[in-house]
Design a protein that fits this description.
Blueprint lengths: L4 E4 L4 H17 L3 E7 L11 H22 L5 E7 L2 H10 L3 E6 L13 H8 L4 E5 L12 E5 L8 H14 L3 E7 L9 H10 L2 H19 L5 E7 L2 H7 L4 E8 L2 E3 L2 E3 L2 H9 L4 E5 L2
Parallel strand pairs: 1-2, 1-4, 2-3, 4-5, 6-7, 6-9, 7-8, 9-12
Antiparallel strand pairs: 5-12, 10-11
Helix pairs in contact: 1-2, 3-4, 6-7, 8-9
Length: about 290
């Protein structure tokens, strides 16, 4: 089954930027584009409470937004769905059948966006497929030659496998370099075990050990995508800080996520949360497989 690139739209400037980003990505990958709008019937004086009339009015507005991208990319196959329901439920469901779901992001400095309890965070936490967040100022020129696809790697090879696969596949479609970033910190002395000390000693210290771990995680992707240039980046510091330190060279940042639920709602990891708020480029959040 061919999965489309899917964009959630709501008429905001951010969602229209996400729509254009999704259209470009669909053209690159030779995939269809699906545009989804979540709609709920509301009493509306101008429409006299007519459900069908209101749905038609909403559909016309979505179609107007879509005409912009179909004019730019006439070869692109586009499907438009106005789905009745809450935005979180509709978008999570749409993501399940998509190659990826693109949404608008307001980033840092705003009360709304991807803070606790927002639609965006709940969609990211619940989606079974990658979700890409796009700022209103995103432009195709940011994907010019020299800008990289940056992806975070942590733990063993299996821990970031899904994020790495997404990053390499995206870079292959764009002809871009992948920069794989692994951050490390000195653990407390009491956390060392005889086994871990032996591994560190055999590797020559912490940084060589981390470089070796990164190389092992990347090796299967190098073999699968031999034409994709790769830069392996190991740096001491917190994962969020190290990723943001190289964000200026990125056309896309890719982070994995382990969503978990608390008594006050869904939460995503601190690294994904920080990158979403502070990176200027689009950010892809990929659920761990």
């Amino acid at each position: 089954m061919t999965r489309p690139i899917t964009a959630g739209v709501d008429g905001t400037e951010e969602s229209l930027a996400a729509l254009d980003w999704a259209a470009r990505e669909a053209v690159r990958r030779g995939l269809p584009l699906r545009v989804v709008h979540a709609w709920r019937y509301e009493e509306h004086e101008a429409l006299g409470g007519d459900r069908d009339a209101q749905r038609g009015w909403v559909s016309d507005g979505v179609a107007e937004s879509v005409r912009t991208v179909t004019g730019r990319y006439p070869e692109l196959a586009v499907a438009v769905d106005v789905v009745e329901g809450g935005p979180v439920e509709v978008l999570v469901d749409a993501a399940g059948g998509a190659e990826l779901l693109a949404l608008g992001s307001r980033g840092h400095g705003r009360v709304v966006g991807f803070l606790l309890g927002s639609v965006g965070q709940q969609v990211i936490a619940g989606a079974a497929r990658p979700v890409v967040l796009v700022r209103a100022g995103d432009r195709a020129t940011a994907e010019a030659a020299g800008r990289e696809v940056v992806v975070g790697q942590q733990g063993g090879p299996e821990d970031s496998a899904a994020a790495l696969e997404f990053a390499f596949g995206t870079a292959a479609a764009r002809g871009a370099t992948v920069r794989v970033v692994r951050a490390w910190t000195l653990p407390p002395v009491f956390a060392y075990s005889p086994g871990s000390l032996k591994l560190l000693d055999e590797s020559g210290g912490m940084e060589p050990y981390e470089k070796k771990a990164l190389a092992e995680a990347v090796r299967p992707l190098r073999e699968r995508f031999p034409d994709v240039p790769v830069a392996e980046h190991v740096e001491m510091g917190s994962a969020g800080e190290v990723l943001l330190s190289v964000a200026g060279r990125a056309q896309l940042m890719v982070v994995g996520r382990r969503a978990h639920r608390t008594a006050v709602g869904a939460r995503i990891g601190s690294v994904a949360h920080g990158v979403l708020h502070h990176a200027d480029c689009p950010v892809a959040v990929v659920p761990h497989g």
